From TrEMBL, chains A, B:
Species in which this protein is naturally found: Amaricoccus macauensis
Protein name per Swiss-Prot or TrEMBL: DNA repair protein MmcB-related protein
Matching Pfam families: MmcB-like
Length: 151, 151
């Protein structure tokens, strides 16, 4: 297990802790979700009442500063959070987004963002995309080569 | 690969071929989906426009005859199909459901059912449940013991 963890990039280690947090909150986590072509979020979470959260994991100042598209995430979720580790200079982060303190094993919400409720049509489209992405990945894991391998 | 296949129950072998078929139709397949507490379907499929299909895999006459709840599946999908292999006595199956001929490697639709469009609220609830089920299974595969193992 530890060697698997060592293979993760710093941002992926944060995403692992964030996914654990989401699960404890009864949110189903989905890493590397693409809500819209050209936009990939680190972790999306789908809550029991259909709430959609987006969490961007930033492992360093450089990682944050180079991400010019973060404002674009807000319109794809009900709540948006940054996830950083305890070394991160948190004063860099805009104060109106949520903040999660994370490591590879765990995470906690230290600041809640305002909720910005998605329009119904967009929520439906995002939920469908989330569902198809997750089930598609499961199917690929269960049967990597339909029509190619196995026969 | 063949030894993995040998470990599957007959119905699961059909479900594997059905999942391949769904993928070729751009439907994301999800085995063992529970649309409603107490009801488990063999394979659910979520299409590109949000269509929800249910496929029940029947490996034998006994398997079919013992399933008294099939009428209950219809209200949880836009289209319902039976999937059977070439040995199955197809005359047992009600003529208004869809029919898929399957084996462990492939499947084809031999009879299309009428579409019975789901009400919007139910479709939304099912899509959300499908999404949370699929992402939950992925999360469990990626990290089997949050809070328990790994630290």
């Amino acid at each position: 297990m530890e060697s698997l963890l060592d293979a993760l990039q710093p941002g992926q280690r944060l995403a692992r802790g964030v996914s654990r947090l989401l699960r404890t909150l009864d949110f189903a986590p989905l890493p590397e979700f693409v809500p819209s072509p050209g936009l990939r979020v680190d972790v999306a979470g789908l809550g029991p009442r259909g709430e959609i959260w987006v969490v961007e994991c930033k492992s360093s100042r450089a990682d944050f500063v180079s991400d010019l598209k973060w404002g674009g995430y807000l319109e794809w979720c009900d709540r948006f959070f940054w996830a950083v580790d305890s070394e991160f200079p948190a004063e860099l982060l805009p104060g109106d987004a949520g903040l999660i303190l994370a490591d590879a094993w765990d995470a906690e919400i230290v600041r809640w963002p305002e909720e910005s409720v998605l329009p119904g049509a967009r929520r439906r489209a995002l939920t469908r995309r989330f569902a198809r992405t997750a089930a598609g990945r499961l199917a690929l894991l269960a049967d990597p080569g339909p029509g190619l391998a196995g026969r």
